[in-house]
Amino acid sequence: MDEKVLSSVTAFAAEHGFAIKDGEPALKKLSGGNSHVTWQGTFSGSRLVIKVAQPDGPLAPYDVGHEARMMQLAWEGAVPAPQVVGYYQQDGEQFIVMHHVAGDAPSLWEVAKWLGDKETEERLAIARNFLSLLPAMHAVVLEDAETLERHYQAYLEKLVSDLEDAARNVITLPPTFRKARDWLIANSKLCEGVAPRLHHGDFRLGNAVFADDAVVAMLDWERAMAGHPMHDLGFLCLPGMKIGDRICGLLSQDELHVLWPEISDEPFDLKTIGYFRIMSMFSELCYMTRAMCRLAEGRARLSGARALPLIARLHHDLIASIIAWENDDVTL
């Protein structure tokens, strides 16, 4: 960890009752992504995690205060999430300090190995445990949020506005972005009358911490916001997170359909899930394209070789999925 950041972290921890003792903090890097670097350390005998936002991340600037508030809201609502100690935003430094949660967080590429030779019943039990996070989040109603139709209109308009600002001196964007935005806004009427709920925004297996096949924490709340109960499920069903015929490598569409009534009172409506799957493709496409524009101007760290094929696939899948949705031919 950078010495300046370490000094800020140590002082912050001490202010919150976690002054270091001899041999502490004994920091260990847990992950070093483009957006954040995450560390584990011992402070006053307690294991804490420090998530440091990178100023040159692909989607900078980040707001760790927002993430900390969303994580605390989840924790207070009995949603499995790390307990937040606090956050720091000063002098160009941003980090969150939270309590450590022990367990495994398998990435998409590790799912097959992680599942090993588990029988179908065991695999579906894990899927049920994971998906049970959704009704827990649905129980967190955001009282002060605006209507979902207005919320999503503002959200979609900002996605395109931020992308256009980043692309202005780099590339000419294809009309797909504005057309897809307008299509999503026009069809947001399916949100009418639905109360805004807590939406994680990055609901994937790799953000879930498992212990003995049970989910003990959901990580990475930086994209959390008010949303529709089916938004996170639509994100989970992104084409890029499918392995063979299994959504996120865990279960097929038919298995999800059978499991869903056991998990949630929300109706399993393919058109609604398909709509939020399309919105998730669109948001990922906007994020990735914006990141590439920042990279082209030397303002972001990112592997262009990895990002470009993802952008091409998202663009293709987005158009194909809108056509299928219009023809009532939704497949997850």
List the helices and strands and how they pair.
Layout: H1 3-15, E1 28-32, E2 36-43, E3 46-53, H2 64-76, E4 84-90, E5 93-99, H3 111-115, H4 120-131, H5 133-138, H6 148-167, H7 176-186, E6 197-199, E7 208-211, E8 214-218, E9 225-227, H8 231-236, E10 242-243, E11 246-247, H9 253-263, H10 270-296, H11 304-326
Antiparallel strand pairs: 1-2, 2-3, 3-5, 4-5, 6-9, 7-8, 10-11
Helix pairs in contact: 6-7, 6-10, 7-10, 10-11
Comma- or semicolon-separated keywords:
11 helices; Phosphorylase Kinase, domain 1; two-stranded antiparallel ribbon; alpha+beta; 3 domains; 332 residues
Provide structural commentary:
The chain has 332 residues and is of the alpha+beta class. 44% of the residues lie in helices and 16% in strands. Helix 6 runs antiparallel to helix 7 (176-186), helix 6 packs parallel to helix 10 (270-296) and helix 10 (270-296) packs antiparallel against helix 11 (304-326). It is globular, with a radius of gyration of 20 Å. The N and C termini lie far apart (41 Å). The mean pLDDT is 93.
Q: Could you give the count of β-strands?
A: 11
Spatially, the strands of the biggest sheet line up as 1-2-3-5-4
Fraction in beta strands:
15-25%
Main sheet overview: 5 strands, antiparallel
The helix content, as a percent range, equals 40-55%
Number of domains: 3
Query: Helices and strands, in N-to-C order?
Result: HEEEHEEHHHHHEEEEHEEHHH
Q: Which stretches are low in confidence, meaning pLDDT under 50 for 5 or more residues running? A: none
- Label the structural class: alpha+beta
N-C termini distance: 41 Å
Mean of pLDDT: 93
Number of helices, where a helix is a run of at least 4 consecutive DSSP H or I residues: 11
User: Which term fits the overall shape?
Assistant: globular
The Cα radius of gyration reads 20 Å
